[in-house]
Amino acid sequence: MNDGRAHQHAAYGREPYDPYDDPYAGDQLAGGRIDPGGPRGGAPVRRRRRRRWPRVLGAIAVVLLLLVVGGYFYMDSRLKRESVLVDYPGRVADTPGTNWLIVGSDSREGLSKADQKRLATGFAGGRRTDSMMLLHYGSGGTSLISLPRDSYVPIPGRGSNKLNAAFAFGGPKLLVQTVEKATGVHVDHYAEIGFGGFVGVVDSVGGVDICVKENIKDVKAGLDLKAGCQTLDGGQALGYVRTRKYARADLERVEHQRQFFAALMKKATSPGTMLNPFRSIPLGMNATSNFLVDENDHLYDLVRMMWAMKGVSGGGGVTTTVPIGGSGSSAVGSYITWDRAKASKLFGALKEDRPIPQDVITK
Fold first, then answer.
1. Are the CB atoms for 178 and 156 separated by under 8 Å?
2. What pLDDT does 346 receive?
């Protein structure tokens, strides 16, 4: 006897019907309910969950990028700017390499009366140059040259006078013009920092390590240091770069200024400072609010300058003073003169971006 199902299906010319082979049969047999089990009674099918961590990491990366970019532009906007590097008739043409004129002024801006008394800065208003250095870097190496403020040089439109008188007569513009005329070197960037800013920058990095050769006590500079290697805080550092309590007065003073500024930049660009937000953020806030630069200078220029000075402090460059030829005295007071032949040789090397000859390197 034939199977009823087979006979029924054969009558219609179709294959035998089996409800369990119908992909929708489970729904029909279960009254529309979905079988929670897998096929043929197997284990339940587990849905694959999308991994969210790539999205989370991506969002974090975007936020960090926005913070870094936003922080950079915020810091850059805090820099004090002034139109300093202006063209004038007969200006020295651009020379190879990069040249910075770095000026430490005696501005008391930002210091309270109590701070001025504590730091022994005096209470004079305005600002005058307290130190001047020419920083050069390029294919010929990195050099940091002190320009003693008592150097007797021609000042455009003012006759001959001490170098720091140029700043007193015409501010940064006239000082840059005077330096360019006296050296033949084109100044590309300008940076100036006052007493208060200097102290703040030093304190923001936790002080700077300096080896003092001999005991120094100078009431006028508020300084009392013992010989030996030690960490100087902002107030001590300011006294150290200002004091003239040396046998060679200003000439030894400029040596200490170069020594300290290079050590400060080394500390500021060290991993312990750059990777530590409790150091790097206060440093950035202090530096950008206290450095005065040319109107076309930016934060990345200042960072490049700091890295160049770090190289000098690490022994990878030359630190020297303009070769001195003699001294004299006139209505402007006591002054020093440059050794014209040696100074010409030194600045000639800078103009051509060549290493400075050893025979013109002095302390």
1. yes
2. 96
